[in-house]
Structure formats: structure tokens, C-alpha cells
Amino acid sequence: MKLLTPDQIRRIYDATDSLGINRQWVVVPLGRSTEGREMVLPDGRVFIGVPEEAAFEAWIAGLQGRLGKLDLSRTPPGAYREPVKLSLLAEAPPGSEGPPFSYAQNVKPGR
């Protein structure tokens, strides 16, 4: 299986950047398919399936136009940043700083 080259990936992201699509919401598998495909996934991410090597140049030439025809209303714009997700450990309630299973500290040996 032939994989995408870094230059080909850059050219794909150049097309998505020109339309203001957030890179975190673009899915580009490194493997190739028999034919190219672009679609918006149910979660709003943009899937870009790249065709085999021989068809790449013709496919990339029309990529921006095909992406522009997709309904990108569920896809965040390029300036969008994912909200910060707080870790459970970062927000632990007072008194829970002990080792895991701290309830076992009160158990007396031999019982």
C-alpha cells in the first residue's frame, strides 16, 4: 500500500486552510483508496479520501472546489479552539489527595 507523502498532505491542508476549515476537524487517512472521496462525517469532521498515485494531480486540482460544495455548517471555522477539558485529578475535592483506595488505611492487619 502506498502512503501519502508529506508534500501531498501539505497540499491537501493548503486546500482546507484556504476555505477556513479547522485542521483538527479534517480526517485524512494516510493510505489511499481506489478513488478520491470528500464528505462531512456525522460529527461534522471533514473526511478526505485520497486516490491512488496516478490520479492525485487531477484530484488535488479540483479538491478546493469540491470541498466548497460540501455543507460545512457543522464544521468549526479555522479560528475555533477546542475547549480545555479539566482532568479529574486536577479538580480533586479536598481530602482526596491520599493514595488510591485510601479507605483501606483504616483497616487493621489481622482482621
Write the layout of secondary structure elements.
Elements: H1 6-18, E1 26-27, E2 37-40, E3 46-49, H2 56-68
Helix pairs in contact: 1-2
Summarize the structure.
This protein has 111 residues and is α+β, with helices and mostly antiparallel strands. It is built from 2 helices and 3 strands; from the N terminus they run H-E-E-E-H.
Could you walk me through the main structural features you see in this protein, from its secondary elements to its overall organization?
This protein has 111 residues and is of the alpha+beta class. The chain has a domain of 63 residues. It is 23% helix and 9% strand. The protein has two helices and three strands, in the order αβββα. Strands 1-3-2 form a three-stranded mixed β-sheet, covered by helices on one side. The longest helix has 13 residues.
Oligomeric state of the chains? single chain
- Major β-sheet profile: 3 strands, mixed
How much helical structure, as a percent, in the residues? 10-25%
Proportion of residues in extended strands = 5-15%
N-to-C span:
62 Å
Sequence of strands across the biggest β-sheet: 1-3-2
Kindly name the structural category. Answer: alpha+beta
Low-confidence stretches: none
Mean pLDDT: 82
Record field, number of beta strands = 3
Which H/E pattern describes the elements? HEEEH
**Estimated radius of gyration:** 23 Å
- Which descriptor suits the 3D outline? extended
